[in-house]
Design brief:
Layout lengths: L1 E5 L5 E5 L4 H8 L1 H6 E6 L2 E3 L9 E7 L3 H22 L4 E2 L4 E2 L2 E7 L6 H16 L5 E6 H7 L4 H14 L5 E7 L2 E4 L13 E11 L8 E10 L2 H16 L2 H7 L3 E2 L10 E2 L1 H20 L3 E2 L5 E3 H7 L1 H4 L8 E3 L3 E5 L4 H8 L11 E10 L15 E11 L4 H18 L5 E6 L10 H17 L4 E4 L9 E7 L5 E10 L2 H4 L4 E2 L5 E2 L2 E6 L4 H12 L12 E5 L5 H13 L4 E3 L6 H10 L4 E5 L1 H6 L1 E6 L6 E5 H12 L4
Parallel strand pairs: 1-5, 16-20, 22-23, 29-30, 29-31
Antiparallel strand pairs: 1-2, 3-4, 3-5, 6-8, 7-8, 8-13, 9-10, 10-11, 12-13, 14-15, 17-19, 18-19, 20-21, 21-28, 22-24, 24-25, 25-28, 26-27, 31-32, 32-33
Helix pairs in contact: 3-4, 8-16, 13-14
Length: 644
């Protein structure tokens, strides 16, 4: 008996029954076999040493790919669990997946881990890796697995959950062993621990079992693993750079915003400079939306419970909403978690004709969502935030062109803020959980895919990950140090027009149901500011900088001229700050540099006499002296202007 495998280049090869993924990789090339950590057959990932039992499409997963690193990191998580159980008799272990850039495992040793514990665990991991222990896959019945893990309550709970899901007594679980250590796992893993070439433990933190605050608190150890030491060093350098760019720290240093404990978790207050930064972003958003066919609307912050029942939020999103307020003799009101029902009410406020469509409603609407305290993270995950929110009502026939135009608009906006590298995810229908006709879903998905292809945007299909009410695309950007941020979303919605009985008069004067598109470009202003702060490390492009030019008089006698220079720049719309503190010129220049001010003007005796300035630009080295004020003012006014 043979299996026929189709390779990525389209060629097919026949192999004897029992051939392993490693055998196939070696038949293609020795270098490929050395780099391999797993293989896929028809999309299913298998261990290298596992026999291939069926024909299908075949590919090799190498260690320097994201999929390969995930295998590597999952294997490292097992080694970490093995080390903890070796070092701490009686330790209980829970789950340990690979995550972005790393892995973690949750434990209960009766106390938190200390930095010294992490050093011991990492040292023991290195010993296990040096022993090159083989990872061996096995299976067990439910009863066998429960006996094997009888002293491990978290593993036992997982096993019982598998049994309940599959049907009592009818299922097996897969295990992986390396020497005396055994763990529940679907796999795959690298062939042996020696393939884990570069690993480091990062930190530990408390974590509730299954993320439920009512269940036991465990101790989570985070680590990272890479294909070689060079890749690990590169990652650690990127972490150092990310720490320098942390928007919470830079927000304090640049006096932009803060998160006072008196205010409550997940909420920020904006200081004058942060307010200016935010105003520039919001002004840009209003200006560009109005110039691109949107109509600006405003909605309240609260609404009666009936609205949220009609929209479905109380049925499907109640955990993310703040508790109701009882007003008007017991009537319940909720602060809004989303803006969409209000825009729907605007659409529904009068009869609509096909001639009005597409109708594009836009709002900078502040919403409130009850995020768990454990996931709140500065501006990046807040409880109160303002969305550049739009809802577009269109006919089915207009939908493809509208989606293409909308994606072009998204990319234009993101490029104006300095992003150039984009990727997308296209989330498609889950047939068992979706509403709407097959034809409408197929048209929507095809239209989204065509828009992405026309825009030249690389994308991946997230099969079945669309919402029950429609497919969507999420746009990701890469920042200055290569991190990936999800910002813009375009979501088709076939449910809300039904929920609210929306319609329009067609050209034949019959009633038709519009298609609704949810769309946010920046995502939220707060999160977008956090991303911008980290992308630019606080050194914003000049049009966004809260202070665009600092003017430094050399001595007190130059202050009057410094303010005259400031007035000339302000008249052209430049945001200016004069530093007339009783300090040395060097101290004042250092302060402006620390505040990442794009332009610094220094004025002294010769400048007063000749109406000149000294100019220091952030992107240039050194200072230019004796430049004519009119020339410099004109240049700075031009540099300070926002795009479009």
């Amino acid at each position: 008996m043979t299996v026929q495998l189709t390779l990525p280049d389209g060629t097919t090869r026949d192999y004897e029954d029992g051939v392993t993924g490693l055998d196939v990789a070696a038949s293609i090339g020795a270098g490929l076999a050395r780099a391999a950590v797993a293989v896929t057959v028809d999309g299913d990932m298998l261990d290298l040493n596992r026999p291939i039992e069926r024909s299908g499409s075949f590919s090799v997963v190498t260690e320097n790919t994201e999929a390969g690193r995930s295998v590597l990191r999952h294997s490292a998580a097992h080694v970490m669990a093995q080390a903890v159980l070796d070092l701490y008799p009686g330790a209980k272990f829970a789950i340990g997946p690979a995550i972005t850039d790393g892995f973690y495992y949750d434990f209960d040793i009766g106390r938190p881990f200390t930095p010294e514990d992490l050093e011991r665990i990492e040292q023991r991991m290195e010993e296990i890796i040096a022993e090159d222990q083989a990872f061996v896959r096995d299976t067990a019945t439910i009863s066998e697995a429960l006996e094997l893990f009888s002293d491990q309550p978290f593993k036992s709970e997982i096993i019982r959950g598998v049994d309940e899901a599959e049907g009592a007594g009818s299922s097996e679980v897969s295990l992986y062993r390396n020497e005396a250590f055994v763990d529940l796992c679907r796999g795959p893993h690298v062939p042996s621990t020696g393939r884990i070439k570069a690993v480091k433990l990062m930190r530990s933190a408390g974590a509730y079992w299954r993320g439920d605050e009512h269940k036991p608190q465990l101790q989570r150890i985070y680590g990272t693993a890479w294909e070689d030491r060079k890749a690990l060093r590169t990652y650690l350098h990127r972490l150092e750079e990310a720490e320098k760019r942390d928007h919470r720290r830079l927000g304090t240093e640049l006096d932009l915003y803060s998160f006072p404990s008196d205010l409550g978790s997940g909420l920020a207050i904006w200081h004058p400079k942060g307010g200016l930064l935010r105003k520039e972003i919001e002004d840009y958003s209003r200006r560009t939306h109005l110039a691109n066919g949107y109509e600006y609307v405003v909605s309240p912050h609260v609404a009666k419970a009936d609205l949220w029942k009609t929209s479905g939020h109380l049925q499907f999103y109640a955990e993310g909403m703040y508790p109701a307020m009882e007003l008007d003799g017991g009537q319940q009101y909720y602060v809004k978690p989303m803006n969409c029902p209000f825009h729907i009410l605007i659409y529904k406020s009068r009869s609509r004709s096909y001639r009005e469509l597409p109708l594009r409603l836009f709002e900078l609407g502040t919403v409130y969502r009850y995020e768990r305290s454990g996931v709140v993270h500065g501006l990046l995950r807040a409880r109160g935030f303002t969305q550049d929110d739009s809802h577009i009502f269109t006919t089915v026939e207009q939908m493809p062109e509208e989606l293409q135009s909308l994606l072009d608009f998204v990319l234009m906006v993101l490029r104006d803020f300095g992003f150039e590298e984009f990727e997308a995810d296209l989330s498609t229908r889950d047939p068992e959980k979706s509403i709407g006709s097959d034809d409408l879903w197929e048209l929507a998905e095809a239209s989204l895919a065509k828009a992405l292809e026309t825009a030249g945007l690389p994308y991946e299909i997230a099969a079945g990950e669309g919402s029950f009410y429609g497919p969507k695309i999420d746009i990701h950007v890469k920042d200055a140090i290569g991190r990936r941020w999800q910002l813009s979303t375009i979501q088709l919605d076939f449910a809300q027009p039904e929920n609210f009985n929306l319609n329009y008069a067609s050209s034949e004067n019959d009633r038709q149901r519009p298609v609704m598109i949810h769309r946010a470009l920046l995502g939220s202003v707060e999160r977008f500011v956090g991303v911008l702060v980290e992308h630019y490390a606080g050194a914003f492009p000049m049009w966004l900088s809260p202070v665009q030019t600092a003017i430094v008089p050399v001595a007190d006698r130059h202050a009057d001229y410094a303010y005259e220079v400031a007035d000339a720049l302000k008249a052209g719309g430049v945001r200016v700050e004069v530093d007339d503190a009783d300090e040395t010129v060097g101290e004042k220049i250092r302060r402006a540099i620390t505040q990442k001010t794009p332009a610094i003007l220094v004025v002294g005796d010769d400048d007063v006499q000749n109406r000149t300035v000294g100019l220091r630009l952030r992107e240039d080295e050194g200072e230019q002296r004796g430049l004519p004020l009119d020339q410099v003012a004109g240049d700075l006014i031009e540099r300070s202007a926002p795009p479009r």
